[in-house]
Amino acid sequence: MTESNKPNLSVRLGEINLKNPIVMCSGTFANGLEYSNFYDISELGAITTKSYSLKCKDGNKPPRIWETACGVLNSIGLQNDGIESFINDHLPKIKDMNADIILSLFGESCEEFRELALAVKKIKTNILAVELNLSCPNVEKGGMIFCSMPEVVEKITISVKEILNIPVIVKLSPNTGDTIMIESAKRAKNGGAEAISLINTLVGTAVDIENIKPRLGNVLGGLSGPAIKPIALAKVYTLSNENILPMIGMGGICTWNDAVEFLLMGANAIGIGTANFVEYCVGLKIIKGVSDYLESKDIDDVNKIIGKLSNKQIIK
Amino acid sequence: MTESNKPNLSVRLGEINLKNPIVMCSGTFANGLEYSNFYDISELGAITTKSYSLKCKDGNKPPRIWETACGVLNSIGLQNDGIESFINDHLPKIKDMNADIILSLFGESCEEFRELALAVKKIKTNILAVELNLSCPNVEKGGMIFCSMPEVVEKITISVKEILNIPVIVKLSPNTGDTIMIESAKRAKNGGAEAISLINTLVGTAVDIENIKPRLGNVLGGLSGPAIKPIALAKVYTLSNENILPMIGMGGICTWNDAVEFLLMGANAIGIGTANFVEYCVGLKIIKGVSDYLESKDIDDVNKIIGKLSNKQIIK
Amino acid sequence: MKLLKEEILNNEKYGENLYKMEIFSPYICRNAGAGQFISVKCSREKIFDPMLRRPFSIYDIEKEFNVFSILYLVKGRGTYLLSLLKKGDTVDFIGPLGNPIAFNMNSNDYLLIGGGIGIAPLYLITKVLTSEKKNVLFIAGFKNSNFAGIEKDLLKTKAYYKIFTEDGSYGNSGLATDFIKENINKYNKYQFYCCGPVDMLKALQEIFLGKKISATAIVEQRMACGIGACMGCAIGIKNEDGEIIYKRVCKDGPSFNIMEVIFD
Amino acid sequence: MKLLKEEILNNEKYGENLYKMEIFSPYICRNAGAGQFISVKCSREKIFDPMLRRPFSIYDIEKEFNVFSILYLVKGRGTYLLSLLKKGDTVDFIGPLGNPIAFNMNSNDYLLIGGGIGIAPLYLITKVLTSEKKNVLFIAGFKNSNFAGIEKDLLKTKAYYKIFTEDGSYGNSGLATDFIKENINKYNKYQFYCCGPVDMLKALQEIFLGKKISATAIVEQRMACGIGACMGCAIGIKNEDGEIIYKRVCKDGPSFNIMEVIFD
Ligand SMILES: Cc1cc2nc3c(=O)[nH]c(=O)nc-3n(C[C@H](O)[C@H](O)[C@H](O)COP(=O)(O)OP(=O)(O)OC[C@H]3O[C@@H](n4cnc5c(N)ncnc54)[C@H](O)[C@@H]3O)c2cc1C
Ligand SMILES: Cc1cc2nc3c(=O)[nH]c(=O)nc-3n(C[C@H](O)[C@H](O)[C@H](O)COP(=O)(O)OP(=O)(O)OC[C@H]3O[C@@H](n4cnc5c(N)ncnc54)[C@H](O)[C@@H]3O)c2cc1C
Ligand SMILES: Cc1cc2nc3c(=O)[nH]c(=O)nc-3n(C[C@H](O)[C@H](O)[C@H](O)COP(=O)(O)O)c2cc1C
Ligand SMILES: Cc1cc2nc3c(=O)[nH]c(=O)nc-3n(C[C@H](O)[C@H](O)[C@H](O)COP(=O)(O)O)c2cc1C
Ligand code: FES
Ligand code: FES
After folding, report:
1. What is the rounded distance in angstroms from the CA atom of residue A65 to the CA atom of residue A83?
2. pTM for the whole structure
């Protein structure tokens, strides 16, 4: 144990250093402002911003939310103000809150990702990493389509890395089969990515049988929440066994117990998404829970449990 | 409305005629014996048997069940007595109960499916269809691997069709991407299949963090139950839009409302799995619920709602 | 806006599937305004179904007792679980959410139109306006007599009111919107506040179209976070240039100029 | 075996996280035998979390009152929800499940060994045997004094009993299995019935190994259907040829010859 007798929580994902492995997922934490009403968000390992595109995006036709058994379907469609607005209006506010930032980017083409990277290059303040959202199921162009084409994953990663010397995380989808997921992760590595975020939402839908119409304006949406946790955990385990890149594991994490499951199965850090909508302080609670768990097991460093149940080569 | 003023519930999936679209899923209803304690199972559209293999199978190491949020992970591993035992011991009993039977088959190779078909050929009594389980995530050989290889789906279907002149249903997995799912369905059709069953379980896992070990003896299992309903419904909708083959839609159906959602999204019949473990009479309840729903909407034939929300060419 | 766990003082049946829940909460009573809402966790601890919180308008605030209330209809599993709660149980909610209504106090005459459970936010508006000695006419439209219970609350205020039921089983027979349509010229100087089902709000848009009427609609949309973070509760709003932009009901609303809202 | 919805007469706290639930049910009282269990739906109607039923041994049957009971520990969300139920509430369960114990009534002496909540099925066994005038010695092992409440039930029977606690806070100090180990030769003509945590049952296997002891273990396994349909509750059983085959705890068990069970 460290001096303070608290276990070490800091983790490294390649070049990315996190003070603890608790990260907020893209799209579920906005830019943190709303949540700073509830706690000091600088205590989090990192917050991932909403995915920003080159131009502002209107998003999909409402309704955009439908709740299913222990899950949430959303079809937001990446509504955002555009990268310039992020840099000029939002970023200074996040910096005021001292939060560590992962900036999520979304483009409809390789070219657009390149332009996004050029915009990001202008940022003077420190950003932990950029996350390339190649897995959104709620947009027609780009998104999920990219990560079903491993060669495109590599191309996009390269074009961003050529411009930025910030670490790059590639966010993958659970909607492709495992073979493609593994291949995409390899290509992301070839392209120079530092880490993988896994998983984005699963494609799902629901119907209003009374009015005989889909529950979502967009018909299909992305499923998140506790319902998908077993699936997400299996994806993390499967990719962890391949030993390609460090991972931020996410999907249905609501409690510190869930977080520990992901760490044991090979996630180097964990992401909290939908749970933020219900328990506004869940991030803090999970940091404390993981720390207490380690203490109760007499483990002085969170890195000692990462990948313990997978065939991962543990990074010391 | 018919004379009795009750809506018509009978449906056709190619050559397969069902008196109503409510089918029990393979592996969740055994051979019906246990459930005949609760109601007359001959009222069901059909019961699908446990998947039978050529030789008896021991199944996977326990524990085999873990409950997740609104879902169930299982890793049974197709424990069964073998096809001969089915034909000699179980089939006569099912026939005594007057149930309409879909016989589920599982083989580890094309050759094994052929041998299974030869065994089935000897059956004298009437069987509605055989269902080829090409999508079990709980076995090392065969299973899910098959339906990630569309050409193998075709080969297996052909080899069974060459021997049997019973209609063939091919059961597909949600664990491959949609492209492969669609391709597999096309190949199943080429091979002579009459219908598709969709979906088998999703690969998932869970961890006992207290004892730092997986919850399932087999580590990975298959996720079923309400948690997966939105995913299953999206798969059915997606495949329905392709207009390849009629479908039995399944995954998380627990109530008649769920069943109607699947019918509207393009399932020609629906399968009930995990719900049988909790509400032993759920099959009957859903038949009645669907019928009452149609009546309340003044619809005289269930076929009129099938595929209403998909781009399906409705089969009259 | 605060996350609170407070005691239920009463969970009274007002009609079939209709309940009024009274909650002790000095914080809400001090900080909430008319038109705001709370978002309630309906499932038990450790249980994630249903997971999302459920939004309910603040129906009434009784500052002197530190008690506020919500009026709710049992629709699905969330409200069903709420209806099982008893006096003395604790309820986990966040509030106040959304914007309080910015009343135009220059006006003297107000017309409130509520349809079904849409009357919920209008009651507190009535109380605020009547306490400011404004002339308030409250028009409520229901399917049947199930909402009769709210009359006892309306009687406590100085508002004029008229209740319509479609089946004529209570109050006046007919549609509230028909009454408005017929009498719109009488009331075109009034400030309107409207809340109810989409069909009613659309009908009102049509009635108001082309007239110089100042009308606010309090709208609903399915929500995830309730605090402006997820973009889930988007509703189409026509801006000055006629462009449609998506605003958040939870953070930008729930009240909007009725003529600017796109109901699909 | 029947699906039942019956009234709860009592849901009494027996210790920390330990409850005894008494249920009115003529059907169970008439049809259930020692060693059988019921499977309970713990979630509310319409709510699917938790979805699966939870198995509990029949702890006691009081035929004259048509009342039976279960003794349960709160472990996760299912048992937590059960503990919230009150007298007068209804409980949805199926039973009796599994096989009643086929007692070898030729014997006169019986030794029951229970560890923790594993004592649950042993109490009814005790009652059946003592009512047949058999000599019953009940050895119970617990971590601490939390289970002290069961002594009042044991006192109602004619059984001899010895309670061990690991921390010595109640009864004798030490492990029940140590007592058995030391005294095994005294009891090797007894019929044994054992139920408890896997570690205890493994220790007993070791103690019994090579001795001609007739011992039955009542085992647990996670279940899905509870009625023999899903193959979920498999447990490895060594058959005569030394082969391991999987049997269903719900339909083939829950009692097995302890020496044949594979505990992993
Ligand atoms: C700002 C606001 C204020 C509201 N005020 C009230 C009120 O005072 N009294 C009242 O009875 N109801 C009110 N509603 C509607 C209320 O939130 C829904 O009836 C309730 O969420 C239904 O939950 P359920 O679990 O019972 O239904 P389900 O149908 O099981 O809910 C499924 C999902 O749909 C959402 N949902 C269902 N109906 C609505 C709806 N009409 N609006 C928004 N989301 C919905 C639920 O929140 C949930 O996420 C309000 C809604 C909003 C947005
Ligand atoms: C035949 C049989 C008889 C039993 N009799 C009793 C009894 O009399 N009193 C008592 O307190 N407990 C008994 N148990 C154990 C009891 O079923 C579990 O403690 C209970 O299911 C835990 O549910 P939960 O939701 O609180 O826990 P969770 O941990 O949330 O349960 C998660 C899943 O694991 C299963 N599970 C968890 N623990 C066990 C266990 N020990 N055995 C089997 N499944 C488990 C649950 O059923 C559920 O499916 C018995 C189990 C079996 C198989
Ligand atoms: C409302 C909502 C919006 C989301 N928006 C984004 C997004 O903009 N970019 C992205 O990469 N992921 C987005 N996601 C996916 C989450 O970041 C996360 O991968 C997923 O929800 C799984 O985690 P969870 O189950 O904890 O929510 C969104 C999820 C939700 C529920
Ligand atoms: C315990 C269990 C055993 C199963 N066994 C089989 C099987 O033998 N063959 C098969 O094709 N599917 C099997 N399945 C999958 C189901 O038939 C069904 O496709 C799946 O469970 C989804 O439906 P549900 O959510 O309604 O359960 C099994 C599912 C469960 C839960
Ligand atoms: S509900 Fe999340 S932004 Fe309104
Ligand atoms: S629990 Fe299904 S066979 Fe035992």
Report:
1. 25
2. 0.97
